[in-house]
Design a protein that fits this description.
399 residues; mainly alpha; Farnesyl Diphosphate Synthase; two-stranded antiparallel ribbon; 17 helices; 64% helix; 2% strand; globular; transferase; Isoprenoid_synthase_dom_sf
């Protein structure tokens, strides 16, 4: 399937008639054998995520939050935004996605583009192949690499929008009128497709076949990961026998492949050799995995957590908790946490916190952080490399 065909079929793969379901896992005997020793946080690394991102953006020349401004200010998307306003007052998840695109500072939805720019600057021009010397360069980054960073963000944003499609077959009376959800789904599909079309157009303008192949395969990985989520029912956590190894494979597809392959593509645009490309890929992969696990751990370590707050039963702490606990005890805990046919997340959260799943997830996060730092050792010391290290320190910081 080529990129154009993938774009046309994407809404169906992502569940045009339904929202992505959570993955529900059951334990197996596989566990983490060793996560290695954590290198510790650099004494010079910023203490807060916002500061890390702000300092990194200064290094690459301009805030990455404005990378997609040309697309976002286009007449087509302005018309879509006007339609999205009609959803105000409804409970369609597209509104939550829209707010997140503007206000999310903790997870930084522009993180992927920022990392692509930083690793481009950290690597610099190729010392072997000088065919790029005539390319435009601003703040040590080629214009084509900046375009790639924007394309990466467009793809990521499009997938976030498509993930907000509601499963109309599982609607409850508390979700609001059916017509609101139907209208919201149409807008989610339309706006997500528009962003993906712009990304495809940008890829074509790069005129690099290998980069197109890398980003197309990343998009295929994303679709495969989300399709797996869509095809998994809530009951499968009891019947399936899936452990942390499979969880890591699926998480790479849905959360790590885009950043990893975008980092590799940035090296390809600068004509770096295969070894440098692989190190960039490894950094993107392990940093993305660490970032995802950090997000998974948050509901279990926040001091102020609402009792009604749900968490993903496919998150790393839960999967690890199941493995340590064993299949039978996990099913028993699920049964004990049921209240009138509904899962009491507060009760289940306390059971998970009392086990080894949360601490093991933190160890796994730091393991991937160490792997990302190891990949950076092949790049020469620079401000950009330090910024990439600080991002790792920030996503592996839990105190």
């Amino acid at each position: 399937m080529n990129l154009r065909q993938l774009l046309l079929h994407l809404p169906r793969y992502l569940g045009a008639s339904g929202s992505p379901r959570r993955l529900w896992w059951s334990p197996c005997l596989d566990t983490i054998s060793s996560v290695g020793s954590w290198r510790g946080q650099s004494s010079k690394s910023p203490a807060h995520w916002n500061q890390v991102v702000s300092e990194a953006e200064k290094i690459v020349g301009y805030p990455t939050s404005f990378m997609s401004l040309r697309c976002l200010l286009s007449d087509e998307l302005s018309n879509i935004a006007m339609q999205v306003r009609k959803l105000v007052g409804t409970q369609h998840p597209l509104l939550t996605t829209a707010r997140g695109l503007v206000h999310d500072s903790r997870n930084s939805l522009q993180l992927r583009g920022l990392v692509v720019l930083l690793i481009s600057k950290a690597a610099g021009p190729s010392s072997v192949n000088t065919s790029c010397q005539n390319y435009d360069m601003v703040s040590g980054i080629y214009s084509c690499q900046r375009s790639l960073a924007e394309i990466t963000e467009l793809i990521h944003t499009a997938l976030l929008v498509h993930r907000g499609i509601v499963n109309l077959n599982e609607l409850q009376s508390s979700d609001g009128p059916l017509k609101d959800m139907q209208f919201g789904n149409k807008i989610a599909i339309l706006s997500g497709d528009f962003l993906l079309a712009n990304a495809c157009n940008g890829l074509a303008l790069l005129q690099n076949t290998k980069v197109v192949e890398l980003l197309a395969s990343a998009l295929m990985d994303l679709v495969q990961g989300v399709y797996h989520e869509n095809s998994t029912s809530k009951e499968s956590y009891i019947t399936d026998d899936i452990g942390i190894s499979t969880w890591k494979e699926q998480t790479f597809l849905s959360h790590g492949a885009l950043l990893a392959k975008s980092c590799q593509a940035a090296m390809e645009l600068a004509k770096h050799d295969a070894e440098v490309q692989d190190m960039a890929f490894q950094y993107g992969k392990h940093m993305a995995m660490s970032h995802k696990i950090n997000s998974d751990v948050q509901p279990f370590i926040k001091e102020k957590t609402s009792d009604s707050m749900t968490f993903n039963l496919n998150s790393a702490p839960v999967v690890l908790h199941q493995e340590f606990l064993g299949r039978d005890l996990w099913i028993k805990q699920i049964g004990e946490a049921q209240e009138k046919g509904r899962l009491d997340y507060a009760k289940l959260r306390e059971r998970i916190k009392a086990g080894k799943g949360v601490t093991s997830a933190i160890d796994l996060c730091r393991y991937h952080g160490n792997k990302a730092l190891e990949a950076l050792e092949s790049f020469p010391p620079s401000e950009a490399r330090s910024a990439l290290e600080n991002i790792v320190f920030a996503v592996t910081r839990f105190s």
